[in-house]
Design brief:
96 residues, 4-stranded mixed beta sheet, 3 helices, alpha/beta, 4 strands, Transcription Regulator spoIIAA, globular
Length: 96
């Protein structure tokens, strides 16, 4: 994992807010995927904010995109926001 990568979490009612900070590489992608898998539940919303990322390495995005599809049953409850949302999300999980 990138040495400066962090995920700050905040839970409010049925929503989990994740703020990604630092550099996003392949290990960071795995950490985010694991956190999503552990916290995605039916009826709950997960909002992933991306604007505080510095460097987003293509390999990190590839790892995330390839493995995000395995979470298909929860993909409607995961929303990406912020400056780099389009680099992470599929169209249906973007916030405008």
């Amino acid at each position: 994992m990138a040495s400066n990568f962090k995920i700050f979490t905040h839970r409010k009612r049925n929503a989990l807010y994740l703020k990604l900070i630092g550099d996003f590489d392949g290990s960071s992608a795995c950490e985010l995927l694991n956190l999503l898998k552990e916290n995605c539940q039916a009826g709950h919303q997960v909002i992933v904010h991306t604007s505080r990322l510095n460097n987003i390495f293509p390999f990190g995005c590839d790892v995330f995109q390839r493995n995000f599809s395995s979470m298909n049953r929860f993909s409607n409850s995961i929303m990406f926001t912020g400056e780099y949302a389009v680099r992470f999300a599929f169209e249906k999980s973007l916030s405008v």
